[in-house]
Amino acid sequence: MNIVIVDDNKTNLMIIEKILQKAGYDCLVSLSSARELYQYLQLDGSNPGEAFKVSVSAEVPVDLILMDLMMPEIDGLEACRTVLAHERYEDLPIIIVTAMGDSYKMAEAMDAGALDYVMKPINKVELLARIRSVLRLKHEKDLRKERDKRIQHELDLAKQVQLSMLSDPIKKEDVTISAVYKPSFELAGDLYAWYQISPSRYGVILLDMMGHGISSSLVCMYIYSALKDTITGMCDPEVVMKELNRRMNQLQMPDSLESYYFTAIYFVLDTVEQTIEYVNAGHPSGIAIVDGEVKLMKNGCVPLGFFEEIDATKGVIPFQDSARILLFTDGLSEWLEEEYGDPVAKLISGLQENEDPKELFEMLQPNSKMLAGSKDDMCLVMVRTDIGHD
Predict the structure, then answer these.
(1) CA-CA distance, 155 to 24, in Å (whole number)?
(2) Over 50: is that where the pLDDT of 17 sits?
(3) pLDDT tens, 139-158?
(4) For residues 136 and 314, what is the distance between their CA atoms, to the nearest angstrom?
């Protein structure tokens, strides 16, 4: 263990060194002032009133600081606050060593971030007991930080895997399909996908998995693994939704208190038959503007995974010349409701004015602070087709 002792009294330094050396602590650094401590920790700042910064290249191994409370120029309380103010040293344990029995000063020391204190004259048994206790706590914190770092790395990797599953835009002469996706800080529960079923038919789905985090992400990837074969093989919205519901029920465990489900909206666009066939499974209504007329995509069924058997009723929207379809998740609609009151009206006007989901999303103006603090994913999927007639 690397222990730093800070005291302006050489006799005190020598006494503490001897006690620690006899107890088996060999990696000791003795310093006579707070400013020497700043230099040792590579805190930059030449003037007393200047803010101290940690050197970018600094790698100073310190496990514990024993700090005298009363020192000239910079006392132990100020030094304690300064050191712990830096991210690199924010968990560094500090024990205050003092001859003062003032309980208010002791409270100040603890408020400054010190973990413990020892009274002078030094009691060897008490000092070693408090050091062991503090070092044990530091060891546990280090283990927890290492574990959290490893978990965060795995979560970041899982996020990248999720993002790689999202469909690439389709841009053809008569059909354009694209999306904009702003995940929350957690693992995502939203997923969109589209597939060309035949030369004239496209299957498009947007789903929102219950909850967030690892479990929702895994369930999301499980459903994704079945999407392509289900949509390209079965195609019909009613049949597809029933199959996805069956897949979700395969995950349900009889003894589990938690059930998994998701909302979804799935439609098939046929550019030859000029129809949009869809099923809405408990999802926010999609918006279709066909030949200038607004249609809400409400027909459907309950969210998938609640019941073993579901009745799904599809809706059919015909069009003659053009269709513009917008799907979105409740993470966006709930924010719009909070900002504007009527999310559907805002989205309809945005869909009428914009031909690209990114432009629409920017028009809605969710600020960066709101996006950073959002607990839910935000997703927009836009499909445009312009058949036209000679």
Answers:
(1) 41
(2) yes
(3) 998 899 899 889 888 878 87
(4) 63
The encoded tokens of residue 42 equal 């590579």
For residues 340, 345, 348 and 352, what is the CA-based torsion angle, rounded to 10 degrees?
A: -80
Among candidates 138, 75, 141, which has minimal Cα distance to 112? 75
Task: Find the Cα–Cα–Cα–Cα dihedral 186, 372, 92, 103, rounded to 10°.
Answer: -110
**Entry pTM:** 0.70
Q: What is the pLDDT of residues 193-213, one digit of tens each?
A: 999 999 999 999 999 988 667
Q: Report pLDDT digits (tens) over 75-110.
A: 999 999 999 999 889 989 999 998 876 677 788 888
The rounded distance, in Å, linking the Cα atoms of 360 and 326 is: 10
Six-digit token string for 212: 């967030």
Q: What's the burial of 110, exposed, middle or buried (CB within 10 Å: 0-12/13-18/19+)?
A: middle
Strands (E), 233-334: 262-270, 275-281, 286-290, 293-297, 300-301, 315-318, 322-328
